[in-house]
Amino acid sequence: MPDVQALVNDFVLKLKRRKIEGSQASARQTAELLRSVISHHRMPYTNQAQALINAVRAVGEHLIAANPVELAVGNIVRRVLHIIREEDLTSTESSFEGLSLSANSDDDDNSESEARPVLSAAAVAAAARSTLRAPSLQTLLEGIPDSASAPHPSSSGGDSDGKSKSAERSSRSKKLKHDVIEAINELIQDIDTCHEQISEQAVGLIHQNEVILTLGRSRTVKEFLCAANEKKRSFRVFIAEGAPRYQGHVLAKELVSKGLQTTVITDSAVFAMISRVNMVIVGVHAIMANGGVIAPIGINMVALAAQRHAVPFVVVAGSHKLCPLYPHNPEVLLNELKCPSDLLDFGEFSDCMDFGTSGGSPLLHVVNPAFDYVPPKLVSLFITDTGGHSPSYMYRLIADYYSADDFVVQRRTSS
Amino acid sequence: MSWDTTSISLSAGCDLFMRYVTRTSALEYEDFNAAKLRLIERGEKFGEISLKARRTIAMLGQDFVFDGSTILVHGFSRVVLEVLKLAASNRKMFRVFCTEGRPDRTGLRFSNELAQLGVPVKLLLDSAVAYAMDEVDMVFVGADGVVESGGILNMMGTYQIALVAHSMSKPVYVAAESYKFARLYPLDQKDLAPAIRPIDFGVPIPSGVEVEGNARDYTPPQYLTLLFTDLGVLTPSVVSDELIQLYL
């Protein structure tokens, strides 16, 4: 247990110091950390799933607080919580099935009385499953277990067999943990292979002799473009350089080395060039529940230019970037101010930033926000590892990946 | 007839309940009394869920109220009131603009409720919405019914407000319980039977002059930002998905 705590602290420190670059790395490392948390967690005899959920939640709170801007961390924590809930449900369901089989084989004479509790136990499990899903009109009424007809599932299993109970239980506990870890491994694999999954769709979207515009550098975009290039599509790429970090220059170099026709433009030239562009493809930081995106600074301008000239604005992103939260007030939240030295050289401008002048505050201020918010109406299409989706479809993916109970991981400080 | 035939939520709620009766295993019992009991039980549960819905919506909606915001409200909606009540009790600092809400002066009643909570309120003429819109951060409305396109039917004037809000790019939020989801698909304003209400103009109306007595208009989905329902915070397109899934 202490070594896990050390791992957690180490990771929290890394997140706080912004040592982990990119949401894919953060997502992967979060998943790995949670996997070791779970594998080192000592399982109690009762209510194991809840114990696991609490353990993951406790760690998750720390991780999210360490870097609230890196939404991928919170997403993975929620995904893992959802995995635990799902695995717990399938294991209870399968144990009920086993129980019903044994009950039927043991005594056929009073099968009438036995059949009902087994059926209702299945109904309870089904109800629990539907509560796991996002509520819908269909499940609104069915979702609630019937208090009148359903006996407690624990009591129905109680009288059947006393001897093998403890053995069965311990094997079940091992199974739950094993299943959860297995599922997390799958999740990690999904995160690792998301670029390939996305790139596979490139040929269907990029056509011969098209002109593609992107801004800055995103690994997903790079692999997407390279995949189309490998399939013998010839097209041209305009790269807005992405001030102030100029990651576009790096991308240009990488694409040229792969033999792609590349043009570098300044960010301010986007509007001038957009009329010649067939499609804008960008990578983003996070996708919000309403279909809006948090993206590197400058992308909103590109999106507006694209809308003005009716150019499709395509976002490529792995599903670990899908966040089940709504941007209530995107201008204030979900942004980060980076170091001003990206913009100005401290040495050259040191006299303008003198704290001695005009009552202690310098005349020159530098603001270097990291992210833009692009509203859903400006996004034409999302390409994720599960295929292409429109912004209004994001809610469905969220319902698939997350449980509604986990949306708020952090307990609010009630004040 | 003793019931309001133009009420959308009444007919939509009944449709929904009928659906639960016909679609589920409730009627598979051999014994008539058992089936009857089950139906009664379902009905009670339906009522219970509907009561709980308002609370759920308030919890979801109050997140969207931020400190220092100005909210425009049109019509007297108990759900919207619940959202604002919860936000106020969570010590959010916000102010509310209420439209007067002619002809039944819903805004006066609403502002009275808010003033009792200690929330700063300002009353507006119905025609002052565009004038006040630049100060407004978000529009909150309730709904008589949510239709299959994701649009809403609500008190007369909602469409107008949504249009003004849209042109000034302010978000329009709708708070509505899921039993108001109706299987209607209005194509334009005149597509539905009008809900005629008497209008008191204060002075006698000159002879030969017609009066538009409809109390309700239809707001198309493209002018709505989000819907707060007990099923969660939904975009208008989700509403059509939900309805299609249920009634398919």
How would you portray this structure in words?
The complex is a heterodimer of chains A (415) and B (248). In chain A, the strands form two sheets. In chain A, strands 3-2-1-4-7-9-10 form a seven-stranded mixed β-sheet. Chain A has a three-stranded antiparallel β-sheet with strand order 5-6-8, covered by helices on one side. In chain A, a hairpin with a 2-residue loop joins strand 9 and strand 10. Chain A has two domains: 189 residues, no CATH class; 178 residues, Translation initiation factor eif-2b, domain 2 (Rossmann fold), CATH 3.40.50. The two termini of chain A are 33 Å apart. Chain A has 15 helices and ten strands. In chain A, helix 1 packs parallel to helix 3 and helix 8 packs across helix 10. About 9% of the residues of chain A have low confidence. The longest helix of chain A has 36 residues. Chain A is globular and about 70 Å long. Helices cover 50% and strands 10% of the residues of chain A. Chain B has 248 residues and is α/β, with parallel strands linked by helices. Chain B has a single domain, classed as Rossmann fold (3-Layer(aba) Sandwich). Chain B has a seven-stranded mixed β-sheet with strand order 3-2-1-4-7-9-10, sandwiched between helices. Chain B has a three-stranded antiparallel β-sheet with strand order 5-6-8. Chain B is globular and about 65 Å long.
